[in-house]
Amino acid sequence: MADSFLFNVAESVLGKLGCLALQEFSLAWGLESDLEKIKDNLKVIKAVLLDAEQQRSQNPQIEVWLENLKEVLYDAEDVVDEFECEVLRRQVVKSGNTTRKVRRFFSRSNPLTFRFTMGHKLKQIRETVDEVAALKSKFGLTERIFYRNINHGERQMTHSFIDASNVIGREQARNDIIETLLQCVDGENVSIIPIVGIGGIGKTTLAKLVYNDQRIATHFELKLWVCVSDVFELDEVIIKVLDSASTGQRYTDMGIDQLQITLREALNGKKYLLILDDVWSENPRKWGELKTLLMGGADGRQQEKQNPNLKRIGEEIVRKCKGVPLAVITLGSLLYSVTDEREWEFIRDNEIWKLEQKEDDILPALRLSYEHLPSYLKRCFAYCSIFPKDYIMDDIELVYLWMANGLVQCSNENQELEDIGFRYFKELCSRCFFQDFAEYGGVVKCKMHDLIHDLALSVTQNECSMVRTSTQQIPKSVRHISFPYPQSLPNDLPKSLQNLDRVRTICCESERKEGISSEAFIKTCFSRFQYLRFLNLSYSRFEVLPKSIGNLKHLKYLNLWRSRTIQRLPNSICKLQSLQVLLLYGCRSLEELPKDIKYMINLRFLWITTKQKYLPTGGIGCLKSLRFLFISWCNNLECLFEDMQGLKKLRRLIIRYCSSLKSLPQSIKCLTALETLCIEGCENLDLTIEEGRRQSIPNSIQPPKTRVRILAKISGVSTMAYSRIYQQLKSYES
After folding, report:
1. Separation of alpha carbons 90 and 577, rounded Å
2. Boundaries of each Disease resistance protein winged helix domain copy (predicted)?
3. Where are the domains of the chain?
4. Tens digits of residue pLDDT in 183-217
């Protein structure tokens, strides 16, 4: 059964209701009984959600009930987030180095009022949840078990060694696999035996038994063991295969073409066994590319036989797709690894095909692909409807958009939210929901097909709205608003927006690259929409951002991309402790960064363009949560901040087209989590190594683990300096 969209929302809210901060507040304020009642009722509701979602199209009352439930879930999330905002505010106020003036800057006028207000809101949520829970009994809904897709956590690299004497009960399975491997028949010489099952069942152990068996060593000229793990990148897999082949060469500095040639040379004419362990990817395109490269060895065993029933059912599904490639590709990516005939028949016989369709309407085929997405991917995909058609998205942008709206969830504290978000992006790519891929500077850009975009709009369930005219009717349930023509916005909110008070997203993404110019409109939005998480004001044409932005305590994403006329940011912006992303790229008139930027303690991604000559200490260097730092087109910038040692979580540092930059700080060597360093277009940057001193910054970087890869694209420096730097960087990659 397809995962429920609301099921994921309910799980997210339940997770937040269990957070330590809220538990402490409720205990101190005598609200623990209200909190427990909310959680108990939500658990009961969640148990019947799968059945309710399946019946909603046949029962209008259930449809209304689910809409009411969605509203109360989002309201509960808003209340919980207010507690989290208060925790962050107190964290700043209590920090040891804050002065009385700073404490006054962040203090609330009346803590008792906050306590009373939040207590009242929590009780209101409890009463509303009680009402929704009481109504469910009249629908005769049944509880259904939800089988969760495994959230692939990080695993340690595996190896091929095993002591067979310690393994009991696997002899028959081992012998069956070996017997199959030893069958040598003519035909396609790349054959595959999958070993599948839940984690911990012993798949790797069984593979090791096969790999180390003497019969295998005698039969195959070459044995290769590769641990693939989460990320299935073709070049990395090839390098691991070549390393396992022990050819004694270095491959990390080879391009993909040279890697392919080297792999073919290593395997050509040889009978080999390649075991790929810890594989998660089901991307058919990448598997096809790898399989093509592996062909060329000596004859192996025969491919498994095709299932004639699946072929017949597949042809029937294709006919229902009316031969339209997008529909065929999307459903094909869904069924690629499915061998159960019942799953194929479910797609073929689904009621969606019977919906009334216009000529050449392929939406039912796409809808089926959407319905089979895991619930967490459904929400991420639906959110993409906030962008206009043909909008070019990039993976970093999407991941942080999802994070800002709480769509990226992590149960393992050792996992980075960004990594989970990138995995979501790759899953949607593998299911053909994105297309037209291009990569630039490590950033993957893509688009949505027009019909896929239509699908996203159709499943947003009245949450997203693109406002093209001031007279457009907008449902009160809308929480995400996009203005494709922000340059024509009036000074006041259109009447259709004045009844909305729970908006989370405002996206002024112009199709013509023209931004908003009405400062009055922005001020109205700041005062009206207190629950904003995401605010895109790119290409704006005002000089000063209103001070009232400091009141948007829920804001997590602020985009001022290419707002070329903006001259300064109010210091009140530093009150945004929830802010995760601040994009100031292309703000060439910006005089300086806010002086108290160090108090934006939750910032994870910062991209700046500024007229400053120096980035002072005690600013960016204090942002301990920072993962991505991009510094671009700062033409006056001569040196960076000296206290980089505080950026213990920084993963990517990009410095581009800072023509006056002369040096980099010594503390750059302390960036222990750094994975990517890119320097480009900094023609005055001195990277020459001085005798007796370690001033050449890339030479000072000391990655703690070999997993760190440092990439440098340095232009405008002397050939000698570049050569020595490049050699040093290569040595760190090994």
Report:
1. 10
2. 386-456
3. 5-139, 164-294
4. 755 445 567 888 876 555 678 888 888 888 888 88
